[in-house]
Write a structure and sequence with these properties.
The complex is a heterodimer. Helix content of chain A is about 35%, strand content about 30%. Chain A is an alpha+beta fold. In chain A, strands 1-2 form a two-stranded antiparallel sheet. In chain A, strands 3-4 form a two-stranded antiparallel sheet. Chain B contains 16 helices and eleven strands. In chain B, the strands form two sheets. In chain B, strands 4-3-5-6-11-10 form a six-stranded mixed beta sheet, with helices on both faces. A five-stranded parallel beta sheet of chain B has the order 2-1-7-8-9. Classes of the chains: A alpha+beta, B alpha/beta.
Chain lengths: ~70, ~375
């Protein structure tokens, strides 16, 4: 990782294949984070809590659907 | 792989399809404007899981596909010059210009190189100070930060042999053009998750309000897309028209601020011609005045070139969601990925390519090739 923030790079594993990626747009990134990379530039850090919440949404709408059906 | 496999879970997909069916009481038409989503929908058969009342239509979500013919002609003219090393993402090479494509330039001895990142083109410029290195900067907002970064790097390194042929497009103005067109059928949008990762979601709020359309920012895996469709349907059924975010693991309302600042520093908003749609005001990015010396159109004197699109290719109708690829008479016969009539058959994000790769076996036998 270089000193100039615009030149900051890091190694990202794409399913096992390592690539050098520019990290200037994700200044808070830490080793071990999952990032989305587009055209050689990391554009976001994936949020684990939000990822889990997205998977829980299905259960919520199903429970909601059942309670609506139950009260109808 | 983590963050991917769990969003491809077939059981979850089926449960979502059932939830959508329960929530749907009337016919609704939803458009996605992202080539990545188009491919996921066709590849995983997401559309086939939906109740018949829900129609998905594929919008102009592939930047390669909406690049106008004249921009291809400019690229071909610049790439043909002996002093030029022309760098591009791979899927531009087979896109036909008026008379030939970039691959034909390469075959004729032109130095055309496929790069993974615009930063690779900057490195090539540094390694070849005696040559002119041109990068073909095509893309939506997602690609704009990387391309802006390349220009900033080139300036910092004092490179005078690097320039960009810029054909950047912006998604929200295209959505507005579709909604404002008299034949519009779109009642709700899945907005592109990675475009919004960069730009955030605020610019969609006035569109949702003004046109009364629900807009759901959505990811790229089948479960993401099904959840996005469910959220669209629920808003439509409840009479709401809001911007909602399904892809919260990557998209924040304010977007990626360092990336947005970079785009604003290097680019300016400009009118842009879209293949198959025509010119849309304020729908593109060009280099800002402070970076105008990196503009390949000026450097090589090609700014004034114009060209008409091939009448054989119906991609304009496909890009507007009026026609599905298999409805085109040339689909899979006179037009294939090896011999495309238009960009939608070539690009890894093009709708015609998606149907060709994943749905051909469901189509009638290909007809023998005949010249018109």
């Amino acid at each position: 990782m270089g000193e100039d923030p615009l030149m900051r790079t890091g190694k990202v594993s794409f399913g096992g294949i390592l690539k050098e990626v520019n990290l200037a747009c994700v200044p808070e990134v830490k080793i071990g984070d999952y990032v989305i990379v587009h055209a050689g530039l990391a554009i976001s850090i994936l949020d684990e809590e939000e990822a889990a919440r997205t998977l829980e949404y299905l259960q919520q709408i199903e429970e909601m659907g059942q309670s609506t059906q139950g009260s109808a | 792989m983590k963050f991917i496999d769990e969003y491809r879970d077939a059981v979850a997909a089926k449960r979502y399809a059932e939830a959508i069916a329960r929530a749907t009481t009337r016919p609704w038409t939803i458009m996605e404007v992202c080539g990545g989503q188009t491919h996921a929908i066709v590849k995983f058969g997401v559309d086939m899981l939906l109740p018949s009342a829900i129609t998905l239509i594929h919008g102009p979500g592939c930047p390669v596909c909406v690049t106008p013919v004249e921009m291809l002609d400019k690229a071909i003219e610049v790439a043909s010059r002996p002093e030029v090393i022309f760098c591009s993402f791979g899927d531009m090479l087979r896109v036909p210009g008026s008379t030939r494509d970039l691959l034909a330039v390469k075959a004729a001895g032109g130095d055309v190189r496929i790069v993974y990142s615009p930063l690779d083109a900057v490195r090539i410029a540094r390694e070849h100070p005696d040559r002119q290195v041109v990068f073909f900067a095509v893309g939506f907002e997602t690609t704009a930060p990387a391309n802006a970064m390349a220009v900033v790097h080139a300036r910092r390194q004092g490179l005078t042999n690097f320039s960009m042929l810029v054909s950047h497009v912006l998604v929200p103005p295209a959505m507005e053009a579709i909604l404002a067109s008299p034949g519009n059928r779109v009642q709700s949008f899945l907005a592109a998750g990675h475009v919004c990762t960069v730009m955030g979601t605020t610019e969609y709020e006035p569109i949702a309000r003004m046109y009364r359309v629900p807009i759901v920012v959505t990811g790229f895996e089948p479960v993401d897309i099904l959840q996005g469709i469910f959220m669209c349907v629920r808003q439509l059924e409840e009479g709401r028209a809001e911007v909602e975010n399904q892809y919260t693991r990557s998209v924040r309302r304010e977007g990626n601020q360092p990336a947005v600042r970079l785009i604003r520093q290097v680019f300016r908003v400009c009118p842009r011609k879209w293949r198959g749609i025509g010119e849309i005001p304020r729908s593109g990015l060009g280099l800002a005045e402070a970076y105008a010396d990196f503009d390949a159109e000026d450097r090589f004197g090609v700014a004034d070139r114009t060209a008409d699109e091939s009448p054989d290719c119906r991609s304009g109708l496909v890009l507007q969601g009026v026609m599905k690829p298999p409805e085109c008479p040339a689909f899979g016969t006179r037009c294939t990925p090896e011999h495309p009539l238009g960009a939608t058959m070539v690009s890894s994000e093009g709708a015609c390519a998606a149907y060709y790769h994943y749905r051909r076996e469901r189509l009638p036998e290909a007809l023998p090739v005949t010249e018109p």
